[in-house]
Amino acid sequence: MNKAFLFVLLVVLLSFSVFCSAPKYVFFFIGDGMGLAQINAAQLYKSSMVNAEQPKLHMLTLPVKGMQTTHSYDSFITDSAPAGTALATGYKTKNGVIGLDPTLKYRLETIAEFLLKKGKKIGIISSVSIDHATPASFYAHQASRNDYYEIAIEMVNSGFHFFAGGGFIYPEGKKGDQLSIYELAKNRDYTLIQTYEGFSKLTPSTGKVIVINSVLDSSKAMPYDIDRQTGEFSLVEITEKAIDFLDNEKGFFLMVEGGKIDWACHANDAAATIHDTLIFDESIKVALDFLQKHPQETLILVTGDHETGGLSIGFAGTKYEANVPLIGLQKISFQDFDNVLATLKEEKRLSSLNDLYPAIEEAFGLVPSKDKASNGKIAMSEYDIERLEKAFQDYVKQYDSKNEKSYLLYGGYNALSVTLTHILNEKAGLGWTTYSHTGVPVPVYAIGNSSDAFAGYYDNTDIGKTLFSLYR
Asked: Taking the CA atoms of the chain, what radius of gyration do you get in angstroms?
C-alpha cells in the first residue's frame, strides 16, 4: 500500500468523521401556527415588494424539505403543548399537556435538557410569553399548559443560559400572592434585562440571562411585528444576540419561536400573520449567516408546530384571482385597531359607522365608496358595508361572543376588527376556515450537518427522535 493511497484514505476518513459527527450548533426554528399557506402568503407578499433584496423567503432556500403530521395523542387537531412536546421529546401526549406522557406519570426529557447535560449552552426565544406552551415544551413538565407560574419556576430552575422575548403571564401566581418569579430568577443567578439599552450592552460575561421585551401586550407577549416601534427588540436582533451570547467551544442549542404567527392566524389577520412570518424568516437568515462560518458543524431546522386558521390562497369572491400585495394596505394589527376603537368609544366618538370610516381608511385602506377609492385605496361593496354595519351594531351592543352565530362570525374577537380583516383578506384572495388550529401536515426545511435525516414524510415525534439520535 503506497503512501499516496494512505494519504487519500486518511483524508477520506477525516472528512467522513467530520460530516458524521453530531452538529455542534443546532438552530431549531418553530413558526407557531405556520403551515404552507402562511409561508406561501408571505412569499407572495415579499416577492411583490420593490425593496426586497431577497425576494424568496430564506426558509425556502434550505435544500432539504420534509413534511410532518401534527396530531396529538388524543386529538387529530393538536394544540401547541403536545405539538411542542413531540418536537422537543419525540413522544406524543394529550392536548394541554407539556413534557409529560399521556398518563401524566412520567417526565419526558427534552432535547434541550439532554444537550445541556452534554455541555452545550441552551437558548430559548419566543415572541410570545416565555412561559407559553411552545417554549415551555423545551424545559417544563406540567399536566396543564395553563399552570404558568409552575412553568416559570421550572424555567428558572432549568439552568438554561439564555431566555428572551415575552414576559411571564403570572409572575406572582394566579392570585398574585406567591414569591415573584423575578426574585426566584435572581436567586438562580439570572440577570433580568428589560430595556433596549441593557439589551445592547449584553455580553456572555453577564452569565445566565432573561431578556424581556421593553414593550409587552396584555398577554405579556411582544407586539406584532407590524406594530413594532423604534426601540423595541425584534426577533432578528434577539437571535443575533443569542448567537453571540451562546457561542462557545462545546456549541449550543437555540430554539426560536415565531409565536405571534399563531396568534394572528387565530384572529384571521393575514397582514399581521405575514409580517410576523417575514420577521421570523429574517431570523433564519441570521442562522444562515452563522452557518456560512461553520458549515460542517451547524444544523438549521425550520418547521411549524401545526397550522392555525385554515388559511388558503383563494377565496370564493375572487374565484381564480388573488392579489396578496393588497394586504400591504393594512398598517396596524387587529389588536392595535382594537385599541383605536376603545379610545373612540371612551371619547364618545362612535355614534355611527360613519364616524369610523377615517380610522378604517387609515388602518386598512378601505373606503365606503368608489368615489373615495384613490391613492390605492379599495372601495367596499354594498355587501361589505352590510357586514360592517352589523359588526358595528354587535360591537356597540357588546354581543355575546359565546353565542354560536357570533362565534362563527367573529371567533370571540372584536366584531369590527375581525370583520375588517376578513374584508381586506378577501379582497386579496385569502380565505380562512377557523379561528382555531387545523390538522393538516406542515412543512419542514433543513440545511447543514445531518440535515438529510429530515427529508421525507413523517410524524412530528420523528423530529424529536431524530435530534436525540444524532447524539446517541
From this structure: 23
Out of 3.90.380.10, 3.40.720.10, 2.60.40.10, 3.30.830.10, the CATH code matching 22-310+436-469 is: 3.40.720.10
Cβ pair 182, 165 in contact under 8 A: no
**What does the block give as the cell for 422?**
376578513
Q: Which cell numbers in the block locate residue 294?
A: 461553520
SS3 266: helix
Note the pLDDT tens digit of each residue in 144-195.
999 999 999 999 999 999 999 999 999 999 999 999 999 999 999 999 999 9
Identity of residue 376: G
- Residue 31 in 3-state DSSP? strand
Please say whether the beta carbons of 326 and 271 come within 8 A. no
- For the stretch 16-35, pLDDT in tens is 444 458 999 999 999 999 99
Q: State residue 301 phi and psi, 5-degree precision.
A: -125, 130
Residues in the chain: 472
Q: pLDDT tens across 190-245, in order?
A: 999 999 899 988 888 888 999 999 899 989 999 999 999 988 889 999 999 999 99
Pairwise CA distance, residues 32 & 253, whole Å: 19
Q: Could you give the residue ranges of the DSSP H alpha helices within 294-403?
A: 334-346, 357-364, 382-396
Q: How many CA atoms lie within 13 A of 318 on its CB side?
A: 18
Tell me the backbone φ, ψ of residue 5, rounded to 5 degrees: -65, -40
Predicted pLDDT at 2: 57
Handedness of CA 71, 73, 75, 81 (dihedral sign): negative
Cα 199 from Cα 241, distance rounded (Å): 8
Residue 129 · residue 153 · CB < 8 Å? no
In Å, what is the CA distance from 369 to each residue of 94, 317, 379? 50, 18, 5
Q: Are 31 and 38 in contact (CB under 8 A)?
A: yes
Which residues, including other chains, have CB under 8 Å from residue 41's CB and lie 6 or more apart?
270, 273, 274, 277, 311, 313, 324, 327, 430
Residue 470 phi/psi, 5-degree rounding, is -65, -20
SS3 196: helix
User: In the chain, which residues fall in CATH 3.40.720.10?
Assistant: 22-310+436-469
Per-residue pLDDT, 20: 59
Q: Which amino acid is at 88?
A: A
* Of 97, 111, 144, 96, nearest in space to 26 by CA: 111
